[in-house]
């Protein structure tokens, strides 16, 4: 059996640790006779619009893959201020058939541009209090560059093309529908 020697001041004597546990014939912990990279896993695009609170852990788990060494996330949250007004929540509405179709197109575009495995886009609808997530985008890939670039592309393109509307609710009982400056159909006033 091979072993690794560890010499450190925190050990009173030389300690030898095995590099791998001993194997017992017939045990459940026998090495696989095949290369782990040979495992096939179908790519997934997970799209969800919901009034429920979003979970970063849930979305991250959905894109986790043993084939990937990177998961990149974008989490957009409600901030408590806008132009010196105190924001208490945001309210989102969407034209769902078109919004879902546009997000599918974004996922397809990402797959054309970067070697990614799984993509998840979760967007909250209805009221979203301060500090809660409005959107979570997660992308997994073998290496970080692809997932980082894909997440950035996803949020920028979503804001420009997906029909989602946001209303800011202010402390002084007023509100304002916000125009998305990135949106291609917005006019320049």
Features of this protein?
single chain, 189 residues, alpha+beta, 5-stranded antiparallel β-sheet, 4-stranded mixed β-sheet, 23% helix, disordered N terminus
If you had to describe this structure to a student in words, what would you say it looks like?
The protein is of the alpha+beta class. The chain has three helices and eleven strands. The protein has helices at 56-63, 96-113, 144-161; strands at residues 3-6, 15-18, 44-50, 70-77, 81-82, 85-94, 116-124, 126-129, 133-141, 164-170, 175-178. The strands form three sheets. Strands 5, 6, 8, 10 and 11 form a five-stranded antiparallel beta sheet that branches. Helix 2 (96-113) runs antiparallel to helix 3 (144-161). The chain is elongated and about 55 Å long.
Describe this structure in a few short sentences.
The chain is of the alpha+beta class.
Our Rg estimate from Cα atoms comes to 23 Å
N- to C-terminal distance: 74 Å
| Uncertain regions spanning at least 5 consecutive residues | 1-35
Give the total of beta strands.
Answer: 11
Inertia-based shape: elongated
Helix content: 10-25%
Strand content: 35-45%
- What's the helix-strand series? EEEHEEEHEEEHEE
Number of helices: 3
What is the typical, i.e. mean, pLDDT?
82
Biggest sheet details: 5 strands, antiparallel
Helix-strand makeup class = alpha+beta
Topology record:
Blueprint: E1 3-6, E2 15-18, E3 44-50, H1 56-63, E4 70-77, E5 81-82, E6 85-94, H2 96-113, E7 116-124, E8 126-129, E9 133-141, H3 144-161, E10 164-170, E11 175-178
Parallel strand pairs: 3-7
Antiparallel strand pairs: 1-2, 4-9, 5-6, 6-8, 6-10, 7-9, 10-11
Helix pairs in contact: 2-3
């Amino acid at each position: 059996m091979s072993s690794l020697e560890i010499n450190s001041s925190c050990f009173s004597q030389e300690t030898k640790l095995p590099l791998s546990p001993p194997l017992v014939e017939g045990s459940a912990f026998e090495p696989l006779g095949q290369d782990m990279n040979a495992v096939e896993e179908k790519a997934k695009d997970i799209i969800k619009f919901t009034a429920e609170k979003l979970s970063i852990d849930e979305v991250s788990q959905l894109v986790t893959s043993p084939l990937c060494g990177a998961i990149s996330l974008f989490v957009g949250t409600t901030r408590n201020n806008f132009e010196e007004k105190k924001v208490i929540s945001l309210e989102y509405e969407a034209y769902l058939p078109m919004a879902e179709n546009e997000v599918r197109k974004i996922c397809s575009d990402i797959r054309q541009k970067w070697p990614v495995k799984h993509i998840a886009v979760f967007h909250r609808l209805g009221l979203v209090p301060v500090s809660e997530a409005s959107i979570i985008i997660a992308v997994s890939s073998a290496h970080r560059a692809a997932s980082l670039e894909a997440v950035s592309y996803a949020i920028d393109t979503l804001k420009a093309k997906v029909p989602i509307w946001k209303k800011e609710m202010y402390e002084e009982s007023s509100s304002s529908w916000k125009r998305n400056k990135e949106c291609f159909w917005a006019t320049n006033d």
